[in-house]
Amino acid sequence: MQIDYEKPASIATDPTSHSTMAKDTSEVLASYMQILSNLIFAAERFSESEMAMIISSLNRWVTKKDISVKRAYAVGTIVQMEWGNNFCPELSYKHPAVIIEEWTNTVLVIPTTSTPAKVAAAYHPTDNPSGKWYYRKVGIAEGFAHDCALILDNAKIMSKTRIISVSGTIAGDLNDDSNIFR
User: 21: helix, coil or strand?
Assistant: First the structure.
């Protein structure tokens, strides 16, 4: 079912819409019903795994979007993040990342992947010194649960609300120039 994008766009930019509840307007509810119909139709083309990730991602967004996160996270913390619904080749759904910088409500993170081809292609000073610069292989020695690759060219500033859980921290002294963090 085709959604008229102009209609929701004009509602989204109308200042009076900020104080009008969605349940009280038929225009927004009609678009909502169209997107639900599209999701049901699209589910026939998704794998069970992808549909489960979409459901989990949407549910985390619905239940956490208005939560204020006051927790502080140390630089070098390895976390599970909700990356949301994105387009390929962007990361989507639940995925691990490393916190590079922290501010009041946001963090700068570098995602990781355990995709075998990306781990094999990743730069590592001893395992693969001619590897791709935008992937950096890390593993147990650096504080990760297993071998994976940091995806350096996908660094992103994200809301702390997207942090699902803490998995660990990068091993060693983060101020040491020989540490993976540097």
Answer: coil
pLDDT digits (tens, 9 = 90+) for 48-60: 888 888 888 888 8
Q: DSSP H helical segments within 24-139, as ranges?
A: 26-43, 48-64, 116-121
State the angle between helix axes of 26-43 and 6-13 in degrees (0 to 180), rounded to the nearest 10. Answer: 130
- The whole-model pTM stands at 0.77
Token match 């989990």: residue? 56
Q: Is-contact 137 131, C-beta < 8 A?
A: yes
**C-alpha dist (Å) from residue 90 to 76, 120, 123, 134, 148:** 22, 20, 20, 14, 17
| Distance from C-alpha of 84 to C-alpha of 58, rounded to nearest angstrom | 8
Helix (H, G, I), strand (E, B) or coil at 125: coil
